[in-house]
Write a structure and sequence with these properties.
Blueprint lengths: L1 E4 L4 H10 L6 E3 L17 H16 L3 E10 L20 H11 L9 E11 L5 E12 L15 E3 L4 E2 L5 H7 L1 H15 L9
Length: 203
Amino acid sequence: MRIVFATRNEGKLKELTQMLSSSGIRLISLNHFPSLPEVEEDGKTYLENALKKARIIAEATREMVLADDSGIEVEALGGEPGVYSARYAGEGATDEENNAILLSRLKDVPPSERRASFRCVLVLYNPDGDYHAFEGKWDGLIIDEARGTNGFGYDPIFLWPEANQTAAELPPEIKNKISHRGRAFQKLKEYLTGESLTGTFGA
């Protein structure tokens, strides 16, 4: 089975492909469709953004589409950056620039008060307009110094206290089981293996 994953981020595609390795599902990225327009993520929630991406891409390709939106929410910052995580330092910002802005806004916050959560919402969208959504959450702390070379985004400064390792230090096989995206994907896999894709998706 082929599903279009609504991203051009090959790092994210690789991570999710590993999660689905035993499912018989083949993900292809938007890089297979160079003429597709970029979708503006202007929603106020992860679900709004994921659903918008999935719907537009499904209407353009007439294929089943998987879209996600995710972000990091820092308690001391009132939940920032949230849905603005990918552009916290401005449109087109690099991971390093986003991390730097986040750390600058936490410079006066003690380590014990830097609680944060990664959140992810996945939307599986049928070209007929039906869809199903899945959500995952991963709790941790923000640290001052980047550690690790795996992953992307805020991974190097997000510490998982249970292992005293950042998301970027964890082996992919571990991260893919416990991360926000991994937990959302587990729900997706359970859905795909437990129900027929020819049926109606719940909203």
